[in-house]
Amino acid sequence: MKSQSDQLSEVRLDKWLWATRVFKTRSQAASACNAGHVKLAGQNLKPAHKVRIGEVFTVQIGELTRTVRVVGLLAQRVGAKVLSQYLEDLTPQAEYARARELNRQTAIYRPKGRGRPTKKERRLLQLMGFIPPQD
């Protein structure tokens, strides 16, 4: 029986990013591509870009810049255990540590037992840049 990678000759970038669990949803992957957060050799890519084996993408997710190599093609989402057959993560551990530290530094201190912020408090936090604005 052939593997899924052998059967596919091309896959859309947004679909591949979703299937390899780089993004939680395909629409998030497409939005990231349209916003210029996914690059190949410094060039912004569109969601319809046809992925080829061996390509190395740079993906900006919040404070984290991930670098991934395409090892295999797939169009359906797979379990996390078999991802190594389709994706090679080239992101240095220092980058993960840097992103964790930035997230920790920007975390909002809220005393225990205060509950969720009120609408007024949330708007103030958004204005100050502590939390992203909700659309």
Protein architecture, described:
- Helix 2 (13-19) crosses helix 3.
- The model has no long low-confidence stretch (mean pLDDT 86).
- The termini are far apart.
- The chain has one domain (4-128): RNA-binding S4 domain (Structural Genomics Hypothetical 15.5 Kd Protein In mrcA-pckA Intergenic Region, Chain A, Roll).
- The strands form two sheets. Strands 3-2-5-6-7 form a five-stranded antiparallel β-sheet. Strands 1-4 form a two-stranded antiparallel sheet.
- The chain has helices at residues 4-7, 13-19, 26-34, 93-105, 119-128, and strands at 11-12, 38-40, 43-44, 50-51, 56-61, 64-70, 87-89.
- The chain has five helices and seven strands.
- The longest helix has 13 residues, at 93-105.
- It is of the alpha+beta class and 135 residues long.
Can you lay out the helices and strands and say which pair or pack?
Elements: H1 4-7, E1 11-12, H2 13-19, H3 26-34, E2 38-40, E3 43-44, E4 50-51, E5 56-61, E6 64-70, E7 87-89, H4 93-105, H5 119-128
Helix pairs in contact: 2-3
Structure summary:
This protein is α+β, with helices and mostly antiparallel strands. The protein has one domain: Structural Genomics Hypothetical 15.5 Kd Protein In mrcA-pckA Intergenic Region, Chain A (Roll). The chain contains 5 helices and 7 strands; from the N terminus they run αβααββββββαα.
